[in-house]
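User: I'm curious whether this sequence folds into something compact or stays loose and floppy. Could you predict its structure so I can see for myself?
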Amino acid sequence: MSEPKARRRAPAMDPDQRRAMIVSAALPLVVEYGPMVTTAKIARAAGIGEGTIFRVFSDKEALLAACMEEALRPDATIAHLEGISLDQPLAARLTEAAEVLRGHMNRIGDVAGALASLGKLSRPPVSDAADVEEGNRRREAGLAAPRAALTALLEPERDQLRLSPERLADTFQLMLMSAGRLGAREPLLDAELVDLFLHGAVGPAEKAEGEEG
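Assistant: Here's the prediction. I'll summarize afterward.
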C-alpha cells in the first residue's frame, strides 16, 4: 500500500498580497460593525491567525485606515466603465455607467460612515494654502480617471452632441455626485438621471387637440 502523498502547502504571500487579502476580508466587516470590529473577527473572515494581521499592520487603526484607502480606489470602477459595450445605445451606456459610479460612491460612503466615530481617521485640519492645494489635487486626481472613461462612452456620438464629450462627461459626473448627496426626498433613479441629462427638464410641448402637425 502506497504512502499518502504529502499535502501541498499554499504558496506563501508577499506582504503586499497579504495586506490586500486582509483588507478585502475586513471591508464588509468594517461596513457592518464600524470601528468596533475586532481583529479576531477579521482574522476569522480572512482564514488566518490574528497575529498575522499585526505582521502586516502596526495596529487596528492602521488596518481601518487601509480599508478607507481601498474604498477610495477607483481601479475596479474604471475597469467596469471601460468594459461597457459601445454597441449599446447611448442611454443604455450611461445608465450602466451611472449604476457603476453610484455603487462606488455608496461604498465610499458606507466605509466612511462606519469609521466616522474613529477620530484618528478624520481629515487633518487644513493649516495653509499648500494643504488646500494638495487636497484639491488629490480630489481632481480621483475624479479624472472616471471622467475619462465617461468621455469615451460619449465619444461615438461626438458629431451629434451639443457640447464636447469632455465637457459633457464632466457635467454628468457632477450630476451623479449631486444626486448621491443625502437629504433628497426622492432621489433620481439612474435611468431618470440619464434621461434628464440627455433630454433636459422640459419635454416637447403637447399639441392641442385637433391641432395639425
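Summary: Confidence is low (pLDDT under 50) at residues 6-10. Residues 129-154 form the longest helix (26 residues).
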